[in-house]
Amino acid sequence: MSVDLDAYVEMSADPEVRRYLGGPVSAQRLRARIEARGIASVTEDPGAFVIAKPSSGQLLGTLMLERRSAHRRGHVEPDADELEVSYLLRRRSWGQGLATEAVSLLLRTAAAHLPDQTVLAVTQSSNLLSLALAQRIGFAYAGTFTEFDAEQWLGVGRLHTLGRVEQG
């Protein structure tokens, strides 16, 4: 557990990893919460996954496909019940195509099990790498809005057409 906990805390407390997500989380507070609830609590919600290195099981990041809360800004449908995909990678895993691969795989897998529906991708407008990834996966610009004191880019796509990225 301590290896997973250490890797998760490292990722979540890293100011560069959390630059576009409101800043780092306190390592001490995060460690206490995870130790109280268990490391499995990181992925206890349906649609929450760990991205791990196949050879060692080492945590590389996390991945989520969940309903965007209706009380939050950033929706395109009147009933505000869209899926939202998000991810977080440890800094040492950046630049290797892991986010593109993981998000694409998650969306293709979800499409095989769920009816076609709207999926959102939200990132700060200043996060050029995440914007490029969202567009590469098939998300189209749907607008901007302000949340967490920053302009957010809202991307939209249909579950059954997202994630069809050419590999190579």
What does this protein look like?
The model has no long low-confidence stretch (mean pLDDT 91). The termini are far apart. The chain has a six-stranded mixed beta sheet, with helices on both faces. The protein has four helices and six strands, in the order ααβββαβαββ. With 168 residues, it is of the alpha+beta class.
- In order across it, which strands form the biggest sheet? 1-2-3-4-6-5
How would you state the average pLDDT, rounded?
A: 91
Strand content: 25-35%
CATH class membership of the domain at 47-158: Alpha Beta
What name goes with the CATH superfamily of the domain at 47-158? Gcn5-related N-acetyltransferase (GNAT)
| Poorly predicted segments | none
Which topology of the domain at 47-158 does CATH recognise?
Aminopeptidase
How are the secondary structure elements laid out?
Layout lengths: L1 H12 L13 H11 L10 E5 L6 E9 L15 E7 L8 H16 L4 E7 L3 H10 L2 E8 L2 E9 L10
Parallel strand pairs: 3-4
Antiparallel strand pairs: 1-2, 2-3, 4-6, 5-6
Helix pairs in contact: 1-2, 3-4
Q: Short summary of the structure?
A:
The protein has helices at residues 2-13, 27-37, 98-113, 128-137; strands at residues 48-52, 59-67, 83-89, 118-124, 140-147, 150-158.
